Amino acid sequence: MKITELREYQTEFQKIKKDLNTGFKEIDRLRNKFVQDYSANEIKQMALDDFVVGKGSAITFCNRMENELNEWGNIHGSNARKFGLYFGTFGDDKERKYRIGKKAFGTDHNQALQKILFSIIELIENKDNTKLIKKNPISPMFKGKILSVYYPNKFLNIFSASHLNYFINALGLDNNSTSEIDKQSLLLNFKNNDAVMKDWSIYIFSKFLYSSFKNPNDEIKDDELPNELKDYKLKDFPPIETLKIDFVELQTEQIDPQNSGEEKSKNKKPDYSAQSKNFKRIGDRGEQIVLRAERQFLTKNGREDLAKKISHISEKDDRAGFDIMSYDLNGQEKPIEVKATLRKIGNSKFFLSANELLVSLKNNNYHFYLVYETGGKQPKIWKVKTSDLIDDKNIIKTPVLYQLNLYTK
User: Fold this and answer.
1) Distance CA 84, CA 349 (A)
2) Please, where are the H alpha helices in 301-353?
């Protein structure tokens, strides 16, 4: 995400931040009370009905964690199996009884309780041991909330994998791990390295993320939307770490300028605001893909030193005339301008600014990276040098914008 865009989101967030600080004091009081009530020694001595949800009591470890501390971080999205042990029904079996939510905890309820309590204590007593935390058998969502409640300055209070993926994509961060713990850490590092957000609590930071970017788009089902809104729903991108990026060699073919494959709607007026928002979103994703692909290429070919030097120029400066400064294997600088589309290889159109054209013509190692299927799991990148793109007779170049300079009085 470009720094100017981030600052705009932060400026907008200031309108509600003061009110959120008041809410933070109350939920932080409840969080502190919970931690005092459930020390490691208290947890060790906990009875079955002091732990489980489902028996009607609100004063249990799981019930308080899920409901009393809901404002600290929502874990309602998954069923009671996440706790490892609960009282209730399962599937077609409507008998209410103690049930074990994970095979790793065994088949005996009391033994399962002891294993779960041991695992909770292990988390609390080993906050700095990431390897041990990842191996801990507590479910990721429950594990994340326990750690965040006990260590609010170290663990983010967002626990859903889909929400973590969504915010990582929204901020344009690169990620190589499937672990929720690592994804939380990535977002926290982003916060802590930002001049505006570094002193925010995780509570305020999470409120900023949800206020700015809302919930994932895919949580809204198509059949829940009125027909008038269906065209406005954006599809969420896959997690960046799951992508399989391919470099492809392509050749252009002559096309009929009167029939370039563009679909035209005679009855629908274009929504230029929505188009601009979506173009930017696709463009940002394209840059994220290219950054990842370039780093992987250099690292794979023994130039990790160059991979670390790659710079996302457009994130800080839109006037440079290119998006990314990468390098050839011999260390030569390689300016890259990224153009992205959701379409498959075939008919496509990209926009080129006058500044990008001028800068590209001045540098003989300037490359255009055209990214196809940007929203999918297997995006394709076509690398093209300036001369190969600009001089290609098969490419139709159409001026679409004029700058008007005027003086009024």
Assistant:
1) 52
2) 304-309
| AA identity, residue 370 | L
Provide the CA 284 distance to its chain's centre, in angstroms. Answer: 12
State the amino acid at position 221 in one-letter form.
K
- In the three-class reduction of DSSP (H, G, I as helix; E, B as strand; rest coil), residue 382 is classed as strand
- Residue pointed to by tokens 């309820």: 109
For residues 117 and 178, what is the distance between their CA atoms, to the nearest angstrom?
A: 26
Neighbours of 62 (CB within 10 A): 21
CB-facing half-sphere around the CA of 203: CA atoms within 13 A: 21
Strand 85-90 and strand 93-100: pairing?
antiparallel
**Helix or strand run (H / E) with residue 94:** strand 93-100
CA-wise closest residue to 158 among 72, 269, 92: 72
> Is residue 113 over pLDDT 70?
yes
Global pTM? 0.90
What pLDDT does 86 receive? 96
CA-to-CA distance for 136 and 158, rounded, in angstroms?
A: 18
d(CA 30, CA 23): 11
